[in-house]
Amino acid sequence: MKNLPAAVLAAGLLCSAAPAALAQSYPAAKIASLKSSAQAGVESRAKLAQQMNDQIFSYGELAFQEVETSKYVTGVLEANGFKVERGVAGLPTGWTATWTHGSGGPVIVLGSDIDGIPKASQKPGVPWHDPLVAGAPGHGEGHNSGQAVNVVAALAVKDLMEKNDIAGTLVLWPGVAEELVAGKAYMVRDGVFKNADVALFTHVGSNLGTGWGATSGTGLVSVEYTFKGAAAHSAGSPWRGRSALDAVELMNMGWNMRREHLRPEQRSHYVITDGGDQPNVVPSTATVWYYFREQTFDGIRKNYEIGNAMAEGAAKMTDTTASWRILGTAAPRHFNRPLAEAAKANIDKVGLPKWTADEQAFAKAVQKNLGSATQKGLATELDKLEAPVEKPASGGSDDIGDISWTLPTITVVYPANIPDLPGHHWANAISMATPIAHKGVVAGSKVIAMTMVDVLTEPALRKNAKDYFVNVQTKTQKYVPMIGPNDKPAIEINSEVMARYRPQMRELYYDPARYPTYLEQLGVKWPVTDLTPPAGYKVD
Known about the structure:
By secondary structure, the protein is an alpha/beta fold. The chain contains 15 helices and twelve strands.
């Protein structure tokens, strides 16, 4: 796929060539009325939001293996008139779902991640560790919720566009393998977002908010290094062997010595994914997987080049050979100011959900049971929209960064999770199929729907967003892709893990035809009255 779906281009929806007649401004009162209708349209689909949230939670699929999730979401969209294209950008679980009304008008792309976390299986609504399937993956970040946010918002706005004859195109897509930061760069490279006007991205959080400018965190490149040597009997004739594991260990020693001489803001980590077969055989192959994180494109590339040099040096020292491939990449994030300001105005109108006393008690119990430093429960005050700090802090990465350097982009976070939890952990799955998540999804969906109305009806917003993108964000720094034209997604990752656990997980897939909620299917009573872990319980 080299650009947006053919249906988009056939309609002539190129943002740079839209006819002047299409750039009409809507009166403020009309926009306010449309936004009220958008909120009502979301609220009327609260049941769908809950079902989608719970259904995807029950799948719990890992990166690149989001088969059931993609099949389910695209099925919902096709049933509602969207044209689906599957397998985009070489991603078997990648897709786009497109719907167009009229001719011309802006192209809005809506995205959210869909993959889970290893060993994060957790029964929702239980405030301590209670896996659905021991050792299995689960939604230990909350990626089960974002597609519900976007689909419900898109359907509400689709109704408005038809009833009010508003021209435009909606394109939904999934963040495949975000936990490996291994999907979006391929979608960018293959032109999935070409000719789109804006990208509205959603991500689970514990408040309702957005931001603009360079964010805290890092970009990264994820690299797999493989060394090849020669096997031999480890005791009988070790001199005839050339240990690939020695090369891996030397590379790791070299990198760890080099850390002192790298910027303090860098973050780098590795795991040895293949250390040999058994101790009495000199390992003929060995593999180590690195994440090199930095805050700038130049910093990422520099550390990647240092890593490559380390690998070559380790190979020379052990008389082995070294090769490597990129498994994933994420650009540093930079979000659009005019879009963020428009979204924040809508956030202020929607406000945080009204949490019940039982929901607050549950959240505080989870925080206590996990040993959180603060046990204040769910957020009751909105975060402010603040200017980016002069020196952003280091930290995690997200491949939405690649899209943010491709077209005007923002991320809206919504309060479906409990604050002050570890992240990437089974504990972050506890709330994700409970009324806490259901309320947070609806709140986020209202904000996205209202912001879509802004984009559709306010040509000045689209112009300002593009001006910021061209004249501020990318004035001196352009997008620097880390993958080349011949790189391919590592779609084999996690296939063995899912093959091992999916049969057990399948028995627990949510059945909305029989149960109103996933909690009811699992026999978890809500509100939860037993908030104290069993005697002798320890957090793992």
